[in-house]
Amino acid sequence: MKNPIYITAISCLFLLFVFCFILPIWFPSDIEGIVFLTNDEGDMIFPPFPPSSEFWLGTDSLGHDMFQQLVLNGQNTLLLVFLIVILRFMIAVPLGYFARKKTGFIFWTIEKSHHYLSALPVLLLVILFMNLAIVEASSMRMGLVIMFIVVIEVGRLSYILSNDIHLFYQKPYYEATKMIGSTFWHRFKKYDLRHIGPTLAVMFMLELAKVMLLIGQLGFLSMFISQQWFTLEGGGIEIQNRFGTWGSLLADTRDHIRHEFWIPLAPVIAITFAMFTFHLCAEALKKYFSKNN
């Protein structure tokens, strides 16, 4: 624990947990927008307001405190990212293990899935799926989108895992355990889990960072996982987000990049810090396991 990378990784994880799960206790769940403020001369100043002692990260164009929005949306963001990655591994790990001999229908399926889907940008595929008419109008849109994000990367993960297990099974000491007559469950508990566990731990952290980036990219493009349609008085249609995340705070912020830069900058900092934390944890785990092995 004296190694700086371990201390930094644990500290970043602790800060992320406190920010997303402890700080919201002291913030009201409803974010009230500030219509205007008055300066020393009595003139009215309208939002967005820049960062100050009153608004640490400034406000958006509706007068909503950016720091408060980050705090209240942090829990949703982390829970969504962890849910996607956990479901992805729950599907990929059994498939990768069953395909460890690199033969059969399961291996053929994940190999083709990895071969064809890895050549296409995941962001593009998710956007195309989210814009399908049946998904747009579905009452289960959030569940459908989450499952698509989960499944789209299962082939890659299971293929990598199957290769790793296959190479491990070729090791002389593993072959020796078969020759002395050890049972499958003995090999599974004593060798397979000890070999697969560290690999899964590192891959899990890296997947968290990848999904966090994807959530941010979708939000910047105003692609909402859960949304609601509203008919305006003038006859137009407006789409509003129904599930707040750090990525959704980036929606419609392109017009503010030049002058009100703090509006997109606040969620970008949060997303970047989370990705940095997950990557750092992956490196710490990799170093820890390599040292112990």
Describe the structure.
With 293 residues, the chain is mostly helical. It is built from ten helices and four strands; from the N terminus they run αββααααααααββα. It has a two-stranded antiparallel sheet with strand order 1-2. Strands 3-4 form a two-stranded antiparallel sheet. A hairpin with a 5-residue loop joins strand 3 (227-231) and strand 4. Helix 2 crosses helix 7 (154-169). The longest helix is centred in the last third of the chain and has 37 residues, at 184-220. It is elongated and about 90 Å long. It starts with a helix and ends with a helix. The model has no long low-confidence stretch (mean pLDDT 87).
Task: Give the secondary structure arrangement, pairings included.
Elements: H1 4-22, E1 37-38, E2 44-45, H2 66-98, H3 105-117, H4 122-130, H5 133-136, H6 141-152, H7 154-169, H8 172-179, H9 184-220, E3 227-231, E4 237-241, H10 262-292
Antiparallel strand pairs: 1-2, 3-4
Helix pairs in contact: 1-10, 2-6, 2-7, 2-9, 3-7, 4-6, 7-9, 9-10
Largest sheet: 2 strands, antiparallel
Q: What is the share of helical residues?
A: 55-70%
Helix/sheet category: mainly alpha
Order of helices and strands: HEEHHHHHHHHEEH
Task: Give the quaternary arrangement of the chains.
Answer: single chain
Observed structural traits:
293 residues; mainly alpha; two-stranded antiparallel sheet; 5% strand
Q: Would you summarize the structure shown here?
A:
Helix content is 62%, strand content 5%.
